[in-house]
Amino acid sequence: MSPTLNAGIAVIGIDIGKNSFHVVGLDRRGAIVLRQKWSRGQVASRLATMPRCLIGMEACVGAHHLSRKLTSLGHDARLMPAKYVRPYSRGQKNDFRDAEAIAEAVQRPTMKFVATKTAEQLDLQALHRVRERLVSQRTGIINQIRAFLWDRGVAVRQGLRFLRAELPRILAAPCDALSPRMVRVLEDLACDWRRLDERIESLSSEIEVLARRDAGWNA
Question: For residue 6, what pLDDT is reported?
Fold first, then answer.
């Protein structure tokens, strides 16, 4: 990009992709003066040479990191929920039109923006998401254990704590309805359950530490 072109760009919309980014730049009148496809590595290096711009992006994977980077370069980087950008899309959908819609949307005075997350906030979000997945896996294992027992006429009172208390007894002295093979299957599932309990407990403790630290910073 030439220095003259750089100086004419006031607003930029970036459509973030996995490997390539579609970039549309508008001048102060709203005319398109930049329409290019950049690689991931080119985004920061090219924008580092440009005067301060208003830069819009959808709040998606990778957007918070890029927003922090562009802000450190002096740009006014803002993130928006994708659902608020869609009304500004014109014509048949493609990546450049998406970038143009983002550039239009970021200028709207009524637009609702998403705060750029810090690295610490993203860490905490990641811990929560991993914990949620593990809890879901644990629930699936518990339901499977119940189903296997129920299929063989072994009923345990509803509730995680009751199955947690009864399962060791059932496995230690299995009834005739439980074959040795099924006992082994249940023991393996019980081991999976214990491992998930340990990981969930570890993540919960780490989340609590980060939450207390964050509360201390904001006090």
Answer: 62
